[in-house]
TrEMBL record:
InterPro entries: F-box-like_dom_sf (IPR036047), F-box_AtFBL13-like (IPR053781), F-box_dom (IPR001810), LRR_dom_sf (IPR032675), LRR_FXL15/At3g58940/PEG3-like (IPR055411). The lineage of its organism: Eukaryota, Viridiplantae, Streptophyta, Embryophyta, Tracheophyta. Residues 6-44 form the F-box domain. SUPFAM superfamilies: F-box domain, RNI-like. Residues 99-322 form the F-box/LRR-repeat protein 15/At3g58940/PEG3-like LRR domain. This is F-box domain-containing protein. It comes from Ficus carica (Common fig). It holds the Pfam family LRR_At5g56370.
Length: 416
């Protein structure tokens, strides 16, 4: 009756029990008895976030790191099994030397996922790619790091990496290009808030998902045949060179022949409309079924020419989502341009769902709304969200021309 059945369970069974607990609770099992003192250090997954701290602990970033470093050192001293996952997502001030030592330790433990989330540091953490030797690593997320690769020939790459996310990092054009190329099975790439605006050269024949939200000088997306989802937000107004003759829309989006979902935001629309935008792309985006354009300036000729070119270049587009920027001014040239499109016999033959946000009952945005409604013969649903105030009454839609007899129009308000 006094037998400790749980403590005498096989290690693999105990491990499967402990892994179901939050790390904080798993660590607390060390006080049960001498048998349990180091059992938690054999866990294969370590998530160090706000949940691991005692409720009485302050938010002091140094104190929090001391708590984390004690956990790390205990694991280094006592663990013998594999460690597949490590995630640091707690606001703290890490010691770079210990962090680099920890990366080297993990890379010899069968590491599959390594995640560094937001932390505080007076200088960049030079991520030790030269110490990262795990051939099993599939997911890598870095924050606040300086990306420097070993000399040419010394860095073999990350042969199993399928997901890479870089947030608030310091990296140059050539280093980023090399890193992406050295991940031969990379499928997902996410880039946020680079420290400096660089020329993004993204080339990877296996890449399927790309999300960018940062400042950058220029972008090249050649040789990405499997790229199916692209989401790009340029954070600052682009620098447009007067002597540039190539249209950025043609040069960047025009090569995304396999893209199925495309999301473009704000200043990137200006970047795409840097010079003469064609009526439609030379090679149509036949696979594009979903298009989302955010913060469209309906009074900006660059935004409108890019928008219409994309619509005409996507014959199989089924879903369109447009949010209109709240600041707007009357522009007769843009008004005349959009009205002229209404008389060109346009037809969006595959469009089934349109979602608009920020549309008013007058002005260019309303003309755009009418254009889509009048030239989409298979349209099934069209929603219009107005920022604040009251929604547009349904009777205002009754007199509008519709190409589809079965379309349903929904009107509501939005605070986003």
């Amino acid at each position: 009756m006094n037998m400790d059945r749980i403590s005498n369970l096989p290690l693999e069974v105990l491990g499967s029990i402990l892994v179901q607990l939050p790390l904080k609770e798993a660590v607390r099992t060390s006080v049960l008895s001498s048998k349990w003192r180091h059992k938690w250090t054999g866990l294969p997954h370590f998530v160090l976030d706000d949940k691991i701290f005692p409720s009485s602990m302050s938010l002091d970033k140094f104190e929090r790191w001391d708590h984390i470093s004690r956990i790390i050192r205990q694991v280094q001293r006592n663990t013998t099994g594999p460690i597949e996952t490590f995630k640091l997502a707690a606001y703290c001030r890490p010691d770079h030397y210990l962090l680099a030592e920890w990366v080297a330790f993990l890379s010899g433990k069968g590491l599959k996922e390594f995640v560094l989330k937001e932390f505080d540091s007076p200088k960049w953490f030079k991520f030790p790619f030269d110490l990262l030797s795990s051939s099993l690593l599939r997911r890598l997320e870095l924050f606040g790091c300086m990306i420097k690769l070993p000399p040419a020939g010394a860095f073999e790459g990350l042969s199993s990496l399928t997901s890479l996310q870089l947030n608030n990092v310091f990296v140059d054009t050539d280093t980023l290009e090399c890193l992406i190329l050295k991940c031969p099975v990379l499928e997902s790439l996410t880039l946020f808030d680079f420290e400096k605006a660089i020329f993004l050269k993204i080339k990877n024949t296996r890449l399927k998902y790309l999300k960018i939200s940062s400042a950058f000088r220029d972008i090249c997306l050649l040789n990405n045949p499997l790229l199916a989802t692209v989401d790009i937000c340029l954070r600052i107004p682009p620098v447009l060179f007067m002597e540039q003759k190539d249209c950025n829309l043609v040069r960047t989006v025009g090569c995304l022949h396999g893209v199925k979902r495309l999301v473009l935001s704000a200043e990137f629309l200006v970047f795409l409309g840097n010079c003469d935008v064609p009526e439609r792309l030379c090679v149509l985006l036949d696979n594009l079924t979903s298009l989302e354009l955010r913060e469209v300036r309906v009074d900006n000729i660059r935004h409108m020419t890019v928008l219409l070119c994309l619509l005409k270049s996507a014959p199989n587009l089924e879903e369109l989502s447009i949010s209109v920027d709240r600041s707007r001014f009357f522009s007769k040239p843009v008004t005349d341009f959009v009205k002229a499109q209404c008389s060109l016999g346009l037809s969006f033959n595959s469009l089934k769902v349109v979602k608009t946000r920020g549309i008013f009952e007058s002005g260019l945005d309303w003309i755009l709304f009418e254009l889509l409604l009048a030239h989409s013969p298979v349209l099934e649903s069209m929603s219009i969200a107005r920022y604040g105030g009251v929604r547009i009454p349904e009777e205002h839609f009754w007199r509008l021309k519709r190409a589809s007899e079965r379309v349903k129009i929904f009107s509501f308000t939005s605070t986003d």
